[in-house]
Amino acid sequence: MKIATKLIALTLSLLVSACSSTSENVSAELEKVDPRQGEAVTQVCKISGWGQIEGDGNVLLIYNYRREAFKLSMVGFCDADWAMSHILIDGKGGANCVARGSKITTDANFSRGGSCTVMKIHKWLSLATPTDLE
User: pTM of the full predicted structure?
Assistant: First the structure.
């Protein structure tokens, strides 16, 4: 009986320690923010172009008519890395606008019916180059 109690206590302590170390890893991942990410905005209008951040399929960069860049953080079934020539924005913020909750579909997902939902919008800043600092 004492052996069973000790085994249960050991198992519970291992489970608790595993959960606590996992939350530390998750919070460390959340703290890694790209230095190019600026302040959050509510919506972007007068969209004139788009692009990707290499290797991050859940992010789409959009540009307004002033060529200011904005990062759209998305969740769902689309991969911005595979978008070739077209994106479709079902905007919640009006004509030619994107806001939190807007649906994005890329040309890679038109036939599959997959779309993403915009969760966050941030200004996207270009990194300073050595020539900019002179």
Answer: 0.67
Q: Which domain holds residue 25?
A: 1-32
Overall number of domains in the chain:
2
| Strand ranges inside the chain, DSSP E | 37-40, 43-45, 47-52, 59-64, 69-76, 87-90, 97-99, 103-106, 116-124
Instruction: Examine residue 131 and state whether it is found in any structural domain, yes or no.
Output: no
- Give me the tens of pLDDT residue by residue for the chain, a chain 134 residues long: 667 665 566 555 655 555 544 445 444 455 578 889 999 999 999 999 888 887 787 888 999 999 999 999 999 877 666 666 778 888 776 778 999 999 888 776 666 667 889 999 999 997 654 444 44
User: Residue 95 is encoded by which pair of tokens?
Assistant: 């004509």
In this structure, is residue 133 part of a structural domain? Answer: no
The verdict on 23 and 61 lying in the same domain is no
